Amino acid sequence: MIIIPVCPALVKSCSPVEAYRSSVKNWNEPCRHCGSSMCRDGSFNRLTPKEIGPFRVQQVRCSQGDKCPGDGPRKQSLIPSWVLPYQRHPVGVQEKVLQEVNDGECTVEDAAERARVEPKTVSRWLGRWRMTIKELQGRICRLLASTGELTYWVVDGTVRGCSASRKFFQQLQLLRRLRCPGFPGCCLVFLCWLWPRAFLPKGQTVLSRFPPEHLAAMM
Predict the structure, then answer these.
(1) φ/ψ (deg, to 5) at 74
(2) ω into residue 49 within 30 of 0, thus cis?
(3) What's the average pLDDT block by block, 10 residues per block, for the chain (219 residues)?
(4) Strand boundaries in the chain, DSSP class E
(5) Which of 57, 55, 75, 56 is nearest to 65 (CA)?
(6) Which residues neighbour 10 within 8 Å (Cβ) at sequence distance 6 or greater?
(7) Which of 107, 153, 181, 192 is the most buried (most CB within 10 A)?
(8) Number of continuous H segments (helices) and E segments (strands) in the chain
(9) Taking the CB of residue 34, how many other CB atoms lie within 10 A of it?
């Protein structure tokens, strides 16, 4: 699975599916194992997110075939950045729900009703999100410290009157603005780009393929 960036402006001006098709058409990243070109190799119909409707997911493979030294799957799916890997709802919906519940704007039940999902789905998102904060906040703080900007974020890991979740969102926004201006995606997409395994079920893998300039900016 390879996450490819989809322009947010194009998503708003036409549709998520059309924007994804445009991104697929212009995608030409080389194989990460041998540097050879990747070629199209079929597609499959994806039914989720239901808010967006069915769409065809493009699959690709290394043009070297069995000669490629890579040990992963030979065929990869190109996943649009407006949906997290193995998730059934748009990433924007998930991020909005997390912010509303953690900021105390609404209950789990109210957020679920607004997003038209089951309360247990929201609870699962919250559980995964809190675990992600616990595991990755220290790394985010270290990346922020390396910028030399706003060091109060990383002195003791706290901000008065600010929940851990809200602070983490603000840290991600700050890091994205300082190190990757123009990054094509929301905070959850940015986090998934930094650590692709952050939102994955155990045993699953995903490649995060965003424009090289964003990766270079973080080095």
Answers:
(1) -70, -25
(2) yes
(3) 81 88 90 88 89 90 87 81 82 89 88 91 89 82 70 46 72 82 78 71 53 42
(4) 2-4, 38-46, 55-62, 75-80, 207-208
(5) 75
(6) 18, 19, 22
(7) 192
(8) 8, 5
(9) 13
